[in-house]
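I am writing to request your help with a piece of structural work I have in hand. Here, with my thanks, is the record as I have it:
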Amino acid sequence: MLPFFQAPRRWVVQAVIGLSLFASTAFAQETALPTKVSVPPLERLPDIPMRAPAVPIPVAPDTIELPPVKIPSAVLPQKLPRKLPPVEIPVPPFVVPPKLPPAEPKPVIETPPAATLLPVEAPPLVVVPSKLPPVGVLPVIVPSKLPSVEVSVPSKLPPVEVLPVVVLPKLPPVEVPQIQAKPGPPSFFPPSYYQVPGQRPVLARTTLAPITPPVLFAPKTQVDAAKKPEEPDVKPYGFDFRNVPAHVRPMPLLGNFPIAPTGPGYYSVVDLIRGQYHKTPPKIPHARFGLMPQSIFDQDYRYLDDPNNTEKDWFDRFKRIRLGDNFMLSLHGSSWTRYMNEANSRLTNTQNDYLLRRTRIAADLWYKDYFRLYAEGIYADSTNSNLPPLPIDRTGYDFLNLFVDVKLGEFEKKPVYARVGRQELLLGSQRLVSSLEWANTRRTFEGARITRTGEKWDFDAFWLQPVIPNPSGLDAADHQQHFAGVWGTYRPDPRHLLDIYNLVYVNNNAIRQQGLDLGNFTLNTLGSRYTGRTESGYLWDVEGAMQFGTQARQTVASAMATTGAGYHAKNLPGTPTFWAYYDFASGNLNPGGEGTSTFNPLFPFGHNYLGWVDQVGRRNIHDMNFHAFVYPTKWLTLWAQYHRFWLASSKDALYNAAGNAIRRDPTGQAGTDVGQEVDIVANIHLGKHDDLLFGYSKLFGGEFLKRTAGPGRSIDSQLFFIQYNSRW
């Protein structure tokens, strides 16, 4: 009886339930919300890689409690609609849809090429409780903008731990220091943090050795700074002298300059004997040559303050000595001995053999970069000469330089100094203003100078008086002579140079030579020079100047010009340098008439340009000359010159390197053919501080010298010399 009763009863119950569902469905079409909705179970979604902008996911708490969803009831109308409208259920703001469209996969983390991110461990981001809310909706938080992560949602989710992915902004390539890390255990453990100043925390799963983090996760400004290694702090005292002087005046580029070899090799005889093979030229502040026109106070020893400097020398202990916090002292010196053998010396019939000796000692004291005291003593002597020594051959114990520099301020971040006292002066090509290195005494002045030295341009303004050597007493300035001017040098790049200058020279001394009045003048010289070279090896040098004023109550209008072209054959053996020059200096076409046009070379370095015999100067002259420099080895320099001389005016005189008139035919009948000269010079760089210089020169007299060669006068002249020079 019981099964029979139960079967109809089950049928009745099912029928009632079905009728109720039909009635509810039809009735709900007229209502906004049903009284009760049953949501089918969520299907298992496939593993879908989702692409989203690279943003960091905030760290979520361990669990999120979702409030139960309450569906408001509605009053059912009498007429039921056949279809239910879409049900809107208020739920938490992030809901996983039943299906998501496939997204294009993309690498999760973008890092710089040079950076490697370490494995990270993070606290759980989202934990879904096992007990779901009354509504059958799986509560999973999904941001409105999906991060670059891969999420797989199963049909049944246990409590899930989602690791946050830290996506760094795209950084430029950086150099990452080597990091020593100890691998962590296979299971997760509480993360360790390494905080970079100004950055988000970086989660690390490994135990890191101490590192410098800004290189890995630094802002752009810090990354750029990290590319350049910080200069070690080598300041032993209060003031930083590493950049004092702020910019050293470079050696002015002479005319007919050679291009010395570089690259690996032996740069001195000592290097060859010891087997010291250098990859680059040794760091010395002077040329590897026996003559050094550059002043000692312009030598640059700042490289000694570089902590990475590997070139050590015994004399370094005397350079850049710190005295307390604010003073720096350097000591310098040089000495030479030269043997001179002159046949027909000074175009006379005298054989002149003599010995020249010179010693220079200098002390250079700086107070910070505000004040400088420089003192340089000199002793020069000549012995065994068969002719009276020249004024430039001898001086007693005296000062070659004695001046103070005071910083006036800065212009375009470069200091401007005022210099007062005895000082050498060399400017530009030194055709007009030189320290005259060949002279045993060197040339110096007394007065004031304002100077500014920079990377691209230099400026000088000065008023000076030449100092006359006095072997029997103290040297003194000649107050009858005044030399003033302004000089600017512009270097647009290391291969090009432009000089512009205006010089005023006043000499109130009466000078009469070869029947010519050469004193009592006021001369204004306006000129310019442009020189340079190309990467392919072509060289050029052009200089010109106009001179005007008065001399012995006559007007002066004169000029000089020089033009040179050269080539550096760096691929040939010996890396030779070749030059071809034409030099001109005007002469007086009508001596004794109104006006004069003889150019005055001021204070020149004639020895470097117009032959080593020194019997031809830059006055009333044409000179076609050729030069060749060859370096068989890096410690041997060979220099050959050829000159062809003729006078600009046959009635004017032949002037020597000092500007003195030595030969003249007032009638002009002796012609203009002065002759030819050949010079051969060799320099052996013995060591870092020592050079052996020797050479032979001969002037072959032309028609002019033959016709003006009276009693006691020669037609030609020759020179042989050998010199040992040491500098420290």
